[in-house]
Amino acid sequence: MNSHRSPDARGLADTLSARFGQRLRRDEPLAEHTTLRVGGPADLWLTASTLDELVEATVLAWEYQVPVFLLGSGANMLVSDRGIRGLVLQNRCQQVTFLRREDEVSDPPHVIVESGVILPSLAHRLAHQGLSGLEWAVGVPGTIGGAVVNNAGAYGSSMADCLVRAELYSPADRRREWHLVNWFEYGYRSSRLKRLGTARARGNGKHFVVLQAELALSRKSPAEIENQMAAYSARRRATQPPGASVGSMFKNPPGDYAGRLIEEAGLKGTQIGGAQISPVHANFFVNCGEAKAADFAKLIDLARQTVKARFDIELELEIERIGDWGNG
Ligand SMILES: Cc1cc2nc3c(=O)[nH]c(=O)nc-3n(C[C@H](O)[C@H](O)[C@H](O)COP(=O)(O)OP(=O)(O)OC[C@H]3O[C@@H](n4cnc5c(N)ncnc54)[C@H](O)[C@@H]3O)c2cc1C
Fold first, then answer.
1. How far apart are CA 296 and CA 317, in angstroms?
2. Residue 269 predicted with pLDDT over 80
3. Among 131, 165, 227, 312, which has the highest number of CB atoms less than 10 A from its own CB?
């Protein structure tokens, strides 16, 4: 197929419909697929449950020159009320393969996980088997793919600490390729992939799909791992609000905490429309029920401007603003 054709969303829809039948949906409301519970429709929506499907749908979108967006659990994004143009691919590829090792003393246990595996479920599954390394992930909603992109982490650990390598697919090159952890250039909630995504939004980037990841673990007793996870969960319950959110809205600036700055700026509990800066934790913005994405966008701007004016500190979003924001 000609890869230099003009965008053809109808052609893509027809081809995906012929291939996937009723699994292809149109105008799917994204508020149902994001933890913040906001977001307008995806023009086209497909759930991929195998890596072959993930690759196939990505290639088709690429060939028809239609934008494709990879969605994990939607736990780190604010999707616009206008939604997302093009194809949204929900990733539910969930195979887990344990690699057998001859000598676990010099060679720790490894596991290969597909990118749609849910992080806290994996942490529990590993704990049952006495495999340590993902305890921090117990309260971090999302998929392995999202965690590889964001360098998700908590309590001083992150993906960068257990990732050995990850397999990426590039529709431009039609290539599947494994990259060692150093390739990802991890920092605090940042990675080469996240930066490439930002570049793509400006129109000059390269598109990658995370297919699977190899993690290195260590052996401990299941009870010890589960106790640690229970302690982390209790800490979250004591400090973080329940309800619909994206976790931390902003990254902590060097040497300080975004939540402290927003609270000191007097914004804790501030509400715009249905979006509120949580009275429990000022870096958590929660949906009180009927919030629009635009309410959150206004609240983000207010927090940034107030903190800048009060402390001369620029707060950087930890989450991504996704979709069609028009001129806003
Ligand atoms: C209550 C709550 C608590 C949280 N606590 C934490 C925390 O302690 N630490 C932390 O780090 N985060 C935290 N988060 C944020 C969130 O859990 C993480 O950012 C998580 O890694 C997001 O994963 P996801 O699958 O939902 O990614 P999504 O939000 O679906 O996607 C995020 C980005 O990754 C891209 N992406 C996803 N999958 C792929 C793929 N397979 N290939 C290519 N690109 C992909 C998406 O296109 C998007 O750009 C919290 C969120 C909530 C709601």
1. 12
2. yes
3. 131
